[in-house]
Write a structure and sequence with these properties.
This protein has 377 residues and is α+β, with helices and mostly antiparallel strands. The chain has 10 helices and 21 strands. Bound molecules: adenosine-5'-diphosphate. Adenosine-5'-diphosphate (ADP) binds next to strand 2 and helix 1.
Length: 377
Amino acid sequence: MANVRLENITRRYQNVTAIENISFKIPDGEFWVLVGPSGCGKSTIMRTIAGLETATSGNLYIGDNLVNNIPARQRDVAMVFQNYALYPHMTVAENLAFGLRMRNVDAAKIKERVEIVARSLSIDHLLNRKPKQLSGGQQQRVALGRAIAREPKVFLLDEPLSNLDAQLRDDTRAELKQLHQRLGITTVYVTHDQVEAMTLADKIVVLNGGKIQQIGDPQSIYAKPANRMVATFLGNPAMNILPAIYANESFQVGSQSLACPPSIHKRLQAKEGQAFDLGIRPENIEIFTPQTAEEDDFNRDIWALEKVPLDVEVKVVEPLGREILIRASLPALGAETTVQLQVPAGVRLRPGDRLTVQLDFDRLFIFDPSTGEALYP
Ligand code: ADP
């Protein structure tokens, strides 16, 4: 096992900069996920660590060794791709043993390793089958097993679940997490799927346009995204963004004025007339239910300032079982701007319904509209 350290790694192809000044250090035994939209540079970083790609500049260390000029097969890393290729004419046992055989490990040791790995992945009953006699999930486990059998210092997984159907993907994801908890091999995992990133990672590296946007554990990134890209990328349904102008201790969203709680307007003094992007997650929007007069008096002191009403028009209703996902437009801003919110399953709403929702400004995010940088909280 080993830590992995990237120091100012840049990779250019003629006039394209695929990744730029990438630096991070993965401590021994941790599970890190590289996540970002297609083309953000995830695979380039992964292939550079594997030794399948040479950095234009920068240094890469595995353990204490500078490996810039060490060829892939001497790096002691094992890689599993989205399109894992098992040898079709070999049995599962032979597939698992292949890497060890290539390294001239002795036969008794190979047999022992294959059995241990097969048991740990619950494929020990499949050892005599050929790949085409296995389901997609079983094949994927054999591919993982083949990589594990070599006992690499570092495990590189590039979208390893994306060929599986939804249920199997969830199951295999949980198995992968358990496997990592048991083996503790330093792992780098590439995905464009934010759910995989959130559920698997010790640390997430969010990438966009070849640059690191933020590194952190899933909860802290979710709670305090560095910028609008990270905020809208992590979380499903995605964070809503409302363009607003700050004036008179309120946010002007189109023709509607949203009162700004003191905690926020204290921070925005001297920003009168400036534009901001407000970020609010779907789980922090709820349908406004009128209170009785007593409740209203009672509640006003507690939350009235943080719950800010907004008028919306329902566009799409998507039942999810336990909840209903609503996509609604803002009449105050015209039809293009929409917000997403989740309401309890019993609530009956139809496209065209107009209603008032409450935004929980206690959970508000504010971004600079030109740079996207997070300004609040
Ligand atoms: P991701 O894995 O996040 O989808 P990649 O690392 O594959 O992204 O690619 C990052 C960027 O580098 C993209 O803009 C891609 O078009 C470019 N790129 C990758 N490989 C090459 C190549 N061999 N030649 C030219 N451009 C490339």
